Structures are given as C-alpha cells and as structure tokens.
Amino acid sequence: MNFAGALDHFTIAQGPYTLFYEGDSEHKNTEILDRVQRMAGALERLGVKPGDRVAMVLPTSARHIVAMWGAMRAGAIAVPLDFSLAGEEIAAIRRDCRPAVIVTDARYLAKTRGGADDAPAAATPVVDATPGATGPLAMDTLLAEAPDRHAPAARSGDDVAAILYTSGSTGAPKGVMLSHENLLAKGAPGDYRRGVPPTPATVETTPIRMLLFLPISHSFGFIMLQMVCRTPLAAVLQERFQLEETVGLIERFRPALVPAVPTVFNYLLNAPEAAGRDLSSVLFWISGGAALPLSTYDRWLERFGRGILQGYGLTEASASVSANLDPSGGKRGSIGRPAPGVKVRVVGEHGQTLPPNEPGELLISGDGVMAGYYNKPELTRQVLKDGWLHTGDVARIDEEGYIFIVDRIKDLIIRGGMNVYPREVEEAVLKDPGVGEAAVIGVPDEMYGEEIVAFVTPRGDLRPTPDGVRAEAEQHVARYKTPREVIVLASLPRNELGKVMKKELKRRYLLGEFRGR
Q1: N or C: which terminus of the chain carries fewer CB neighbours within 10 A?
Q2: CATH number of 190-408
Q3: pLDDT in tens, 228-254
Q4: CATH number assigned to the domain covering 412-510
C-alpha cells in the first residue's frame, strides 16, 4: 500500500493529460510519472532505503513534487521543508529527522548545508534541483542516468509516508508522521466537491484546474497536492502567493478551484491591483489554515456573489477534518460537518462529552489521524488518547452536527477569572470600518491576571483610532472583553502560510517595542 502507486493507477485510467502548468511549461501526467519512477531509482542509487528520510527545501514546483513522490515511491519518508526557514531552523530539523538525502536548489543551498555540526550531517548528499544544473548530484543528471521503470516499494498502510513539521506557533516545530493510509484516506477523489459537483456547464476546462500557491511543506498545500494524483485535477503551480502574478494566473489559466488562507482573501478584497480583474472562472474559493473572519466572508459574498468554502483541519489529522461546502454559505461561521470517515466529539474539562452548542475541546478520530510525532513518544501520548486526537481547539457542535471553532485553548485569556476567547474579540474589533485585520492577545496584569491587547491594521485608506476601535468593540462584546489597549500597525507578523504569529506579537509587546504607540 504505497501512496505513490496511486499515480500509476490514475494515469492508466485517465490517459495522458497536462497535470501541471508551471510558468510557460506544461507537464503531462505520463511525464511526471516517468520522472517520479526515475527519481525513486536515483535515490536508491544514492543509498536511500525504505524508512529513510528524504528532505526537500524547495518552493511549490514540479521538481519538489517529483522529489517528494519519488521518495515515497522508493519507500522512503518524504520531509518537505519550508524554503523560507532560516539556516538554524533547517539545521534543527535535520538533527531531528536525520535525512539520508536533501533536495534543494542554488537559492537555498547555503542555508541548507549550514548548521551541519557533526560528520554524518555534513556528509548528507545534497541533490541540486536547479534547472540546468550539471554534475553527479544534479537532479537532471540523476534522472537521466536512473532506470526508467521503478515499481512502488512495498509498504504497509501503517508505514510512514511523510513527516510534516508544524510551524511552531505554539512551540518548537514537531514532526507529524503521516502514514500511507493517512494519505490514501485524505486524498480521496471528490472530497472538495461533495455536495456541489461541477458540471460541464459550469467548469471551463477538463480536467478541472486548481491554482496551487500554498507551500507543500504545510499540510493544507500538501493534501491539496496529493489530490491531483487521484482526482481529475490539473494544478497551476505558483512558487508563492504574489498578488499581481496570482491574479494574472487566474485570468490566464481560468482555474475553477483556488485554496488559500484568509490573508489572501483580504489582499484580494483590499488591493487596488485586484479591482476589476476577471476572477469569474473560480467556482470554489476554499479557505483553510487559519480562522476566516466573518467580516471577510461577508465582504467577499457581497462583492463576488459567491461564498468562500470554509474548511478545518490540522497537520495531525492529515489536514482535512470538515468542510462547509455550500457555495451559498451554509451556516455562517461554521466549518461544516465532518468529512467522510471522520468522527468528532466536544469534551469538557474531565473528558465528558458536552451537549450541543456547549464549547469544549474538539476531539477527532478516523483514518486521517497521524501516526504520532517523530522522536516524541511522550508528546504523542499526550494528544493521542484512546483512539482520539486532542486538537487543542475549542469548538461547539450544533444540533445538526455543524462545527463552529471558538478558539485555541492555549490562546484563551483569563481576565479577572472570566474566560475571554481572542477570536470573539477579534470579530468585534473587525466591526470597525477602518480595521482591515486584527489579532488579540493576553498579557500579564497585576490587577486582573491578564489583560487584553488588540493589534489592528488599517483597511485601505481608512485609519482606525484606538478609542474608536474600543468603542466599536464595546457595542458587540461585554465590557470585560473589550481590549484595554489597541495598537495600530502597518502589518501583522506572519509565518510562511500567512498565519498571524501571536507569539511574536506577545514577545515584542513584553519587550516594550510598542510603548508610546
């Protein structure tokens, strides 16, 4: 049961077609299959054995995909890393997972090689995936010299296929082990179309095109990518989201499906460069990776007449847990019902299942739940209990089974003994017409234990004021939930996926960087 074998079966079943569009190049599925087979053989020649780790430090690209699928085909464990990581961060992950081979290109070679503070790490072969590179470890050379056929290595469903390192927003990055069974369960055809199937009358191209600029190193992008080798999808690849280029790709390739994080939707709503551009081909805008503010959803629906399909997932559950796939919006603010094969519960402090609409920790069970954290058995035991994954997210489930995320447990602010969920305060702050984005944190306070601080950015040419933001928030939440302090910033710090880094905001606040603002 090797996940990489799915590409063989689907290529045979569908026949040749363009699987990836990349710049001015097109890559047929048959071509990609041939390169994946050769990559598996090339890795074996470099000494890679089943169970070894193969790391990739590359942006979203066909070469990254070939290296990743080739590693899995050889029975190795693919470890896609965020190419924007610093050298020290890459070195820490290398020390943790000990890759047998690393694949990168000239742009990231120096920081990928850096930090190798012992002989085995220093001796790790580094494959140069730079287009046109030459030499014995150049990817083009290895593929040209590799055998042209390589059957998928025999693997069981429980064998690990990939390790995805979390962003570390709640601590040091953790390697999430996903098995071949996890990927086969989550790459199921039609997941994204359940309830709203495209028809020839609504989709302009066959196979359906998806614009993919999400990083493959993140579970959202990783799982969306895995769908293309089991589903009639063609991916238009973009190394990273860049507003003008992204809009141009939508107009040129007419994708029907665009997965993105909430930040992207805010850019498309607010940036003058996006005004008046033709985005009409996109039938399915899918939001994931972070909570979508209700104000963003409402503005999008008003402007484009089509809702954003909201999903929920986490790396530890192979990304996809639930989706609200009604294009008219379904239940506003809901992340939908559980996906097929996924079970969910909301539990209280003592593990008891809570009644409908009562908030508690969200627990998940199903074939997509991870095998565990790499090299962290104790941490694995803390989150995997009795067959249930403890997500650390506070949620409620209504009488019809729709899930509503309230907040992260670790983000909870306790002010004067009262629980305050930052997301609720953020939604209130975003009611101010001058606020484009908001992030709320708790900071130590002698009187109340914790106090509430809101960071906001301007919306377009409008300029919010701290007093105005507080006054607006008081109209929507209790006084004890109103931010004591509002700090206006030009932008919020984000990780590679676009998530706001609240830990960074808190660190900088406690260092006094925002005094006097």
Answers
A1: C
A2: 3.40.50.12780
A3: 888 888 999 999 999 999 999 999 999
A4: 3.30.300.30
